[in-house]
Design brief:
Radius of gyration: 66 Å
CATH architecture of one domain: 3-Layer(aba) Sandwich
CATH class of one domain: Alpha Beta
Number of strands: 12
Distance between the termini: 36 Å
Shape: elongated
Number of helices: 25
């Protein structure tokens, strides 16, 4: 596995306190931008010239009259969704504003004001006028506000009223011109149509004479003559009636003949009075019935041989003969009637056929006349429509049109200037200043990829932070054991001890990615804390190129580590003592140019082994690991390595690279020291430094007695132990 490849850090969600931290840290930028924007907005607001505004409100409608005309009653105009916007553009067009410029002589007036007395060009005046006009619709109404701005209140009201009047006059004149032009076109079309009507009328009259169309025939609109059609309808009606009567008589005759064959003359005589009424036959049948009844009565009373019986029988036979003869006469009469009806039906059928033929011939002959007459009627109807339209338009032209554009409120001079709006501009400056300042602060913070918080370090380097060192830390040997900064190093010492996997690990190299991150101060103060706790400690200045520890201890650098490694001096000769009995110092010594790789020698490894035996803890100061190889060599040879990262100095990828170099050479990186924290800017770090300062110094100021002092110290130790 390549040690340079690390897993991507887990995603984290920002808390509100993270945003607040950024604002606190970048408060200088925010305040500077805020003041700059506010001051600029205020100065510009007070420098800008004051201007007044006047508003004229007009009500606009589509082209219509004050009184609804006959045309409007007959038809309604469709809805136009672009009407208001179209009129907006029209009011701001050169057509309307040009009339305003001419009416108010603005070329001359504004030329005297803005062009040293010379007349402005119409285009220049139009551009100035457009910038001063602001059109606004009144929501959910047909009203438009014409707002005009000017340095003079009277001029603003005068221009606003002039724009409203010019737009109203333009709409009225445009409507009148359109109506008059339309009437002229309609009248020309009407004259042309009348000529066509006259020509068509002459053609109809000529065809009427040539085709011999009568007045009665000319009344109809179709090609069928009126008299022939009436005759045909009557003949057809008579034919239908004759055929129905013929069919009825034929059916009756055939039925009676069939009944006579079936029942004989007597049965036929009984059926005829019911089917065909005959008074004589009915009378004979009644007489026969009376005679038969009398005959039956006489035979019962006198016997068959009685003279009255014989006389009655003779009367019966005579009645039978008369009935028979009457039935035969009726049947002959029915035969004759059927033949007559048949002849009449044939005659009617023939006459109907002849009438139809005559009607078709007459229609074909007179068709040109009726076609010409129909065309004449169409021309007359269109001529009448044109005549009515012309009359409507002439009436509509003379109707008043003031409701098309109505000036609801005329403009009046303003009492107070409306521009610039000083409170609004200053308020906007304040708001924009804050927004821009905060936005710039967050943008700078976004561009700043350096270490900002402990979470940044642990998330990006995947390594624990063992200590947090505040800003402006001095040397603990000079400040004393009760220095407010000493507790930060005590915390680092405690965390370092607990991070050891084995108590035999007692050599520590302190490295950093770049120069100036405070590793030398960290090594010095950390060693001082170990020495103050009673442990025999040695500080080795292994930064051979830029040694600084001898200056902090006010000791000489004439002999040191290089002299021992080059076998020029013994170990006891190069180790120096300090004011603190438990703290010794091994300076770097003078580095010959021919011995740059001296730290990787076997002599250096032997020295580290010797120092492990003599001292409880040995601390090595090193050069930046990204600059030279000495730091990597030390990290590979000592037991533990601490990486110092300065707060907001170098980008995170540089620190990650330094950690990877330590791991690549096999170094044991036990933790990170976050150095040079600005407690005044980032209060989230106050706990690591300010807490101890307040705790110790307040306890010293408030202790009343020596016993109380001992109790307070014991309590403090207990509290610190609980915390760390």
């Amino acid at each position: 596995m390549d040690p340079l490849k690390v897993s991507p850090p887990p995603e984290t969600k920002l808390h509100f306190l993270d945003y607040w931290r950024i604002i606190r840290i970048r408060k200088t930028v925010i305040l500077a931008v805020f003041l700059l924007v506010v001051i600029t907005a205020t100065l510009v607001t007070f420098i800008l010239p004051e201007s007044y505004s006047s508003v004229a409100r007009i009500k606009i409608e589509r082209d219509q009259s004050d009184i609804s005309s006959m045309v409007e009653r007959g038809a309604t105009a469709g809805y136009d969704p672009y009407f208001i916007q179209t009129e907006f553009e029209l009011i701001q067009s050169e057509v309307i504003l040009g009339k305003v410029i001419d009416a108010l002589d603005l070329n001359k007036e504004w030329g005297n004001k803005y062009n040293n007395g010379e007349h402005l060009k119409p285009s220049e005046t139009l551009a100035l006028l457009k910038r001063r006009i602001d059109l606004r619709p009144v929501r959910n109404t047909s009203l438009i506000e014409i707002r005009v701005y000017s340095e003079k209140a009277e001029e603003a009201s005068k221009i606003a009223n002039a724009v409203a009047d010019a737009y109203k006059d333009h709409r009225l004149k445009q409507r009148q011109q359109l109506s008059n032009g339309g009437i002229t076109v309609l009248e020309a079309r009407f004259t042309e149509q009348e000529a066509k009507v006259k020509a068509a009328q002459s053609n109809v009259d000529e065809l009427r004479v040539n085709l011999k169309v009568s007045d009665a025939m000319a009344i109809g609109e179709g090609p069928s003559p009126l008299m022939s059609a009436d005759t045909l309808r009557k003949l057809e009606s008579m034919r239908i009636e004759s055929k129905a009567e013929y069919d009825r008589e034929v059916t009756l005759l055939e039925s009676l003949k069939a009944l006579g064959k079936e029942r004989g003359p007597e049965g036929l005589a009984q059926a005829i009075p019911t089917a065909a009424t005959d008074t004589l036959l009915s009378s004979l049948l009644e007489q026969l019935t009376v005679v038969e009844q009398r005959l039956v009565a006489l035979e019962k009373e006198f016997g068959p041989e009685h003279a009255e019986v014989i006389k009655c029988k003779a009367m019966k036979d005579d009645l039978h003969n008369k009935i028979k003869n009457r039935v035969e006469g009726i049947m002959l009469g029915l035969d004759a009637r059927v033949m007559s009806l048949k002849t009449s039906l044939e005659n009617f059928t023939k006459e109907v056929a002849e009438a139809k033929s005559n009607d078709i011939d007459q229609a074909n002959r007179t068709r040109p006349y009726f076609d010409a007459k129909r065309a004449l009627d169409e021309l007359r109807r269109f001529s009448q429509i044109l005549d009515a339209k012309i009359a409507f338009e002439k009436i509509d032209v003379v109707l008043p049109k003031t409701m098309m554009v109505e000036i609801v409120d005329r403009a009046v001079p303003g009492l107070h200037p409306v521009r610039p709006n000083k409170p609004l501009n200053i308020a906007l400056g304040i708001i924009i200043g804050l927004v821009v300042g905060i936005g710039l602060a967050f943008f700078i913070e976004y561009l700043d990829t350096s270490v900002k918080t402990i979470d940044d370090v642990e998330r990006s380097l995947q390594c624990p932070v063992l200590g947090v060192i505040p800003q402006n830390v001095g040397l603990l040997l000079e400040e004393g054991a009760e220095s407010p900064h000493a507790e930060a190093y005590r915390v680092l010492r405690t965390n370092l001890l607990f991070s050891r996997k084995d108590d035999k690990l007692n050599t520590v190299a302190v490295v950093s990615a770049g120069a100036g991150e405070g590793k030398s101060t960290t090594v010095f103060n950390l060693a001082a804390v170990f020495a103050q706790s009673g442990q025999r400690t040695l500080v080795v200045d292994s930064d051979l190129r830029r040694p600084t520890l001898h200056k902090m201890l006010h000791l000489t650098n004439t002999i040191g580590l290089t002299n021992y490694l080059l076998r020029q001096n013994a170990l006891e000769e190069v180790i120096q003592t300090t004011n603190l009995p438990t703290l010794d110092f091994l300076s770097s010594g003078k580095l010959p140019s021919s011995s740059l790789g001296i730290l990787s020698s076997a002599q250096m490894k032997g020295l580290i082994g010797e120092l492990k035996q003599r001292y409880d803890f040995v601390f090595f100061d090193s050069p930046p690991i990204m600059g030279v190889s000495d730091a990597s060599i030390l990290a590979s040879e000592v037991d533990m390595t601490l990486q110092v990262i300065q707060y907001r100095r170098y980008p995170q990828p540089m620190n990650i690279r330094a950690k990877q170099l330590i791991e690549k050479v096999g170094g044991n990186l036990v933790g990170i020291v976050l150095n040079n924290i600005n407690m005044s800017q980032d209060e989230s770090y106050y706990y690591y430094s300010g807490y101890y300062h307040d705790y110790y110094y307040r306890s010293e100021e408030t202790e009343p007695t020596k016993g109380a002092d001992a109790a307070s110290k014991d309590q403090a130790k207990v509290d610190i132990k609980q915390k760390y």
